[in-house]
Amino acid sequence: MKKDYTILVPTMLPVHFTMAMSVFRANGYNTVLLENKGDAVKNAGLKYVHNDTCYPAQVVIGQMIDAIENGGYDKHKIALLITQTGGGCRASNYISLLRKALEKAGYGYIPVLSLNISGLDNALKLTLPMLKRLMYAVSVGDLLMCLGNQTRPYENEPGSTDELIDYWTNRCSAALCDKKVSYDIMEDLMKKIIEDFEELPRTVTDKPKVGIVGEIFVKFSPLGNNDLEAFLHSQGAEVVMGGLLDFCMYCIYNYIVDAKLYGMGKIKAFFCKKVYSYLLEKQLDIINLIRGMSRFNPPGDFAHTVSLTKGFIGLGAKMGEGWLLTAEIIELIESGVKNVICAQPFGCLPNHIVGKGMMKRIKEAYPDVNLVAIDYDAGASRVNQENRIKLMLANSMEKNNKIITQEQNRETVIVE
Fold first, then answer.
1. Would you say 70 and 62 are in contact if contact means Cβ atoms under 8 Å apart?
2. Which of 22, 30, 45, 333 is placed for a possible disulfide with 58 were both Cys, Cβ 3.0 to 4.6 Å?
3. What is the β-pairing status of strands 6-9 and 78-83?
């Protein structure tokens, strides 16, 4: 089927996923990253997925069905690919919801594949070389996202940051098509990426930094969060957020925690420790490259992120984004980001517990933090969401002006 079938893949992180698609194509899979969006996608999701189901499921399944019906594909020569973490979140059951929606829409004959490393369902076979190159795609994607967010608000020429991101996305995608690509080659490319961003003309001014955390899909996906990053940039803010590699390490680290807490899966935990150490080493490589070659702020290392849970939440809380979400909020605050948006699907129980449910405890420890939870749902008003964010930014500016005034008064007293 690889020769004749086109595999449709829903979008979450456009840059990361574009590079990942090149890995699949190099291994004979004709993958297409879906770019359809708008009301048609959400309406398709609401039509074929129960309205009490997770909002990300509605959006992802709606995007696939809309693509089947309006994308011009041969309906008898396409397959669908969806990820599964294997955790307790309902996201692991999206594949069942997708099949049910396809039956309801009259497309029950379309094959559905699962992308996971847990041996679930009808999994797409991933070889070790493929997994390595997918890791390269995630690492480079995180680097481009990190540098892009620190450059875009300050660029002298509007659009220059996105042009540079597109250039390097295409160049790295071409490199990842080579099955013999090594980490040394990708590291050289990452060095050149940092050099290019460091040389990009920009004027650094005082702009509020806004962190984004939350359920993984609405945190990252422009389709799922109504272009949240673009909106924050339009309001003169700098976006700060953790990368996809952190979530990958979180999923792997949880197997290690299970072995410690419950004595289960010790053999799996042994191999997960090896993988975790490898990924952490590569993340530290990127952090050191950014620190040594530029003035940009590097992302936090995952080992430090884990340590931030102490006194706040146990590592056994791992449904959905679990303890990682709480840790990311604290990490943002400690790095100087005092404004944090928790993006959550309406009714997402894990997210409400480890995100919104932890806000009181976090505010007790950090009284000056500006936390706001934004619910995303097919019936939620985009205007209300954006107005709440505007209010948060206005409060931030008011606090900042008070601090500046106090410092000026203090300097005046010292001079006198």
1. no
2. 45
3. parallel
- Separation CA 258–CA 260 (nearest Å): 5
Radius of gyration of the chain (CA): 22
Q: Walk along the chain (416 residues) in steps of 10 and give the mean pLDDT of each run.
A: 91 94 93 92 90 86 95 94 76 84 94 78 81 95 97 95 97 92 95 97 91 93 93 94 94 92 89 95 96 94 95 91 94 94 86 89 93 87 90 79 53 56
Within the chain, all domains assigned CATH 3.40.50 are found at: 208-242+300-416
Residue 239, SS3?
strand
What CATH architecture does domain 208-242+300-416 belong to? 3-Layer(aba) Sandwich (3.40)
Helix axes 160-176 and 14-26, enclosed angle (nearest 10): 20
Cα(337)–Cα(241) distance, integer angstroms? 10
Alpha-carbon distance 44 to 22, whole Å?
Answer: 28
**Burial class of residue 122, CB neighbours in 10 A (0-12, 13-18, 19+):** exposed
- The amino acid at residue 64 is M
Give the position of tokens 């010790």: 266
The pTM (predicted TM-score) of the whole model is 0.91
Q: Name the residue type at position 290.
A: I
